[in-house]
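Board notes (copied after class):
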Amino acid sequence: MTIETEVLDTPDRDAAKAALAILHAWGQKATQAEIAALDPAVAQMVNGTGYPAFNRIYPTDFTVGANYKATLPDLQNGPSSLIRGAQQLIQHVGISNFRLPIRYHSRGGGDLQLETSVTGSVSLDAEKKGINMSRIMRSFYRHAEATFSFDVIEAALDDYKADLESLDARIQMRFSFPMKIASLRSGLTGYQYYDLALELVEQEGRRKKIVHLDYVYSSTCPCSLELSEHARATRGQLATPHSQRSVARISVEDLDARECLWFEDLIDLCRRAVPTETQVMVKREDEQAFAELNAANPIFVEDAARLFCEQLLADTRVGDFRIVASHQESLHSHDAISVLTQGDTFAAQSFDPKLFNTLFHVG
């Protein structure tokens, strides 16, 4: 049967009804595959079931061409009319904790490949709907094979700042850095792992390079030590001072591009300030030495902040800095904490309510 229809510039209701009749007539003889090949909206009219017959087999041979790609919706790059909520500048938008192996230089001249968690964000202008998050990852991966340094982070930041047309941008990389440490007296060595992060921040055209380090140490309470010695001296009573595992998060702005502030340098700086770092390899003579070392360096949390500060102030490679210390008390059911900042970079009237919860060190 041949049905001829007049092609109208402006179809009316009768023309639409005739076209629908043709579709139904064709649909009675067509296969489901032929119907599925139509536009889904047309297929729904043909089936007359209210639900189209979708293909349920994954099309392994389907390829994306330029024309098809151009039809894909992109809501994040849509007009400002799509913005929900206040049309306001967002200071940080991006991705957190995507991981990949990155190589790092060590002070001794070798390279280490370490699993690294990356956070990348950009500012978003008030009139922009959003960003394509995957661009941050793609920009970063373009440089991931290089031996990493702040220069390479800067190249990645340049890329995704340009890709996303943003004014401000940030990259932070977190990793666990191994360093071989000798025991106090037995001559053994073992690997101590340090939680480190590198951060590059660009704001209002100015870039800052920041290094974060969690340093874990033992803190013996000076008051408890004196009281224990008093009990021994006056009453012959055996008593032990309390000490606890403690964590200081040291954040420093790296100033000197001519002289590298190695990770090992920052760790050594902390060890000079507070030498009672927790130990890796311990025999009996090491345990006795550690007890003696703690007795020689009793420390309140206020002392810790000031001792770290003293060392940081003396290093010309260090600009602004922040020290957050937490002594996780064995006497009290709460912790003792201190925060000391130098300069504007880390100055803040408020901090994250869970900040000190993040200073717990899990061995």
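Comment from the instructor: The first strand starts at residue 90 and ends at 105. The longest helix spans residues 13-29.
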